[in-house]
Design a protein that fits this description.
Length: 95
């Protein structure tokens, strides 16, 4: 099965909260990594999202060890909307 990974940077101007964390994350620019797999058997090329991860902490934080937190696209969209950034380039789930 063919897979692809897309990395996007998203910026929060205010601290934000994700359901899986007890403490809010700092404002900053974060790397969002989306893994997708090819949907086979179609007459056109299409991919299905299989995982979305947010790399923490923010890119600007100088640290040797980073973590990937599994998140849903809906949770990221809600956090961006709450932040008021409403970034047009944030990845969207069109499935």
């Amino acid at each position: 099965m063919t897979e692809r990974t897309t990395e996007t940077e998203i910026t929060f101007t205010h601290p934000f909260h994700l359901e899986s964390l007890s403490e809010p994350l700092e404002a900053g620019t974060y790397r969002l990594v989306v893994d997708e797999e090819l949907i086979e058997g179609l007459s056109f090329t299409a991919y299905r999202r299989v995982a979305t991860h947010l790399e923490i902490p923010a890119i600007s934080v100088a640290i040797n060890r980073r973590q990937f937190l599994q998140v849903s696209q809906q949770e990221i969209d809600a956090a961006l909307e709450s932040d008021g950034t409403g970034q047009d380039d944030a990845p969207r789930d069109f499935s």
